[in-house]
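FIELD: query
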Amino acid sequence: MRSTTLFTLAASSVSFAVGISGPEFHQLIPREAQLKADDPLPGPRRGSFDPVPPEQTEEEKSRAGEIKDMFKTAWDGYFKYAFPRDELRPANNSFLNEYNGWALTLVDALDTAALMGFDDLVSTSLDYIPSINYSRDSTDKVCSLFETNIRHLGGLLAAHELFTGPLANLATNKSEQVAALLTQAQAVADTLKFGFDTPTGIPQNNLYINNRSTDNSTDNNIAQVGTLVLEWTRLSDKLGKDEYGKLAQKGEQYILKPQPSSGEPYPGLVGIEINITTGRFTRGLGGWVGGVDSFYEYLMKMWIYDQDRFSFYKDRWVTAVESSIKYLESHPSSRPDLTFLALHNETRIVGYSQHLACFDGGNWILGGLALKEPRYVDFGLQLVDGCAAIYNETETGLGPNIFRWDPVGTPPEATKVPANQTSFYRRAGFWIAQPGYGLGPEVVESFYHAWRATGDKKYQELIWGAFQSIREFTKVGSGYSTIEDVNGKVGSGYGNYQPSFFLAETLKYMWLAFTPQSPVHVSGVEGPESQQWVFNTEAHPVKVFKPRDGGRRPKRDVLEG
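FIELD: result
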């Protein structure tokens, strides 16, 4: 999941960690190595497990079983101590109710439970979901349009896809409850759609459900605007009503056609914030980081979803990727073998990234396969290796929320390495700017895509190592918790928070990596036509649009460039 919340912290952390702010970020020295079109792909390159998947090995079966056990522990803790509230506080067996009180974890985790074959959990969830009142917020707190979209709307749509498709057998004799999933998805959208009632159609993100008001923000970030279009378009296509897709697509056009020019400091790369009233960009700070990230992610995924309607989205993704290779590719001064994507503040570059940004390798691999462009797959694998390093070099084997580096060529007098991390930086190639770990999926998500594209078992081993670290260092009380320091002593601090996306995403990607015969997978075969599913940013599988399969495409209403 691409949470935009962390970037709010991250933006201020940049200034703190670097010691300067805004336009004073130091300029990156031009990169040394250019990726060439004829560079060979590293490692094995074959189609993944399509069209006939291999048998699951005994080792894969054993590992998938242990991941399944972890999911069951996390679910049982939630269901015993938190349900029907939103999320579990495992250390003291209590709960958080920050997402409207709509049983978030149950909805978010349902498709993972279904894929893993938990019939009883599926039955319980299907019985409960029709009773959720999506028109009222029991917490009376601010509602995030973005988070509710990717978790609730995405989760309901995915469950409906599965139980009317490859997992229909799990919902035998529950046809009414399955139908209610789509009814409830529409109810979520109907509740949230007042957020789009702005002069431009760029939505307000912070909503108050009970009185249908907003916090009157002047700006919204790009991820929160650009990570709605998949779910709302899919809802329109399933219902045959174009209003939902049109709402999300209208605001998107202001990102696809950015104004003023400072909002697009490099071709295809945009700033983090846009004015809700004027549609003009207000900040040139950006990159493949929280607050912008899933906007780029959805450009490619929308084209995979429907190449006819969303060809311009694909063009914008390609432009962003080419600019990223040209301007954002960065190598740490102490480990030039590692590749990261840097942050940009207008045209100034800084060696800064986040665990959240480590989805980038997987997205590039996905796009490269879809476009039959091996350069993108190759570069994506380099990014995957870079993010593997942020796990491999810490005491816990888990990556920090925020990490920094001095790009190759940084003068000694301009170094930003903290004095107490000099030796660590020399060995690891990054230093830790925010040491927490949030149980997020991004690194294992990219490992999963790398495995699907190459068939190389080393990526399964990386996922297994991450699983073992989570089991050793995050287990507490009735579940699993965020931790405060990935490089600290064991037990140095728990955040006492088990986020719903741990079950929806992190454990799903892990389990899929050891279950090649799952009916739902991202294809590793080249060409967009090979993809049967596209995962939303919360890892909820959405069926790729195919009119012949009963999808109903509303009239063309998408910006065509």
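FIELD: remark
The domain at 56-541 is CATH 1.50.10.10 (Glycosyltransferase).
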